[in-house]
Amino acid sequence: MRKIEATAAEIAVRDQIISELLSCIESNSRIPMSDPRFAGSLGSFFYFFEGEDDLLHLGVSRSDGAPLAVEDAQQVALFLMPDLPPGVLWVKPGTYSQHFYFGHDELL
């Protein structure tokens, strides 16, 4: 597993997405999966956030549709939320996408 290096543009998009997420969490607003404000990319990976109530969902897949290892998706999650304790992140593994779940309040 190689370390994924982010570009300045990918970091700026991440920061904007996290800011939007925090705003929605603080106002108790729904975070729809179809809203492009909550999606981005990191290298060859695509990610999105969605959530309701008190649970956030992070989905990660490869942009080319190829199978995705859990370890690579975990690197994307770490890039997005470097301060999130790993013990609060639940993973639902798949073949072509990996899905992570955690409480809204973990980001506040």
Summarize the topology.
Layout: H1 8-26, E1 39-42, E2 45-52, E3 55-62, H2 70-80, E4 90-92, E5 97-103
Antiparallel strand pairs: 1-2, 2-3, 3-5, 4-5
Structure notes:
- With 108 residues, the protein is α+β, with helices and mostly antiparallel strands.
- It has helices spanning 8-26, 70-80, and strands at 39-42, 45-52, 55-62, 90-92, 97-103.
- A five-stranded antiparallel beta sheet has the order 1-2-3-5-4, with helices on one face.
- A hairpin with a 2-residue loop joins strand 2 and strand 3 (55-62).
- The longest helix is centred in the N-terminal third of the chain and has 19 residues, at 8-26.
- The model has no long low-confidence stretch (mean pLDDT 92).
Brief description of this entry?
The chain contains two helices and five strands.
Output the keywords.
2 helices, alpha+beta, 108 residues, five-stranded antiparallel sheet
The major β-sheet equals: 5 strands, antiparallel
- Count of distinct strands: 5
Relative strand content? 25-35%
CA radius of gyration is 13 Å
> N-to-C terminal Cα separation, in Å?
30 Å
Q: Which structural class should the secondary elements be placed in?
A: alpha+beta
Continuous helix count: 2
Instruction: Report the mean per-residue pLDDT as an integer.
Output: 92
What spatial order of strands do you see in the largest sheet?
1-2-3-5-4
Stretches where pLDDT falls below 50 for ≥5 residues?
Answer: none
Order of H and E elements: HEEEHEE
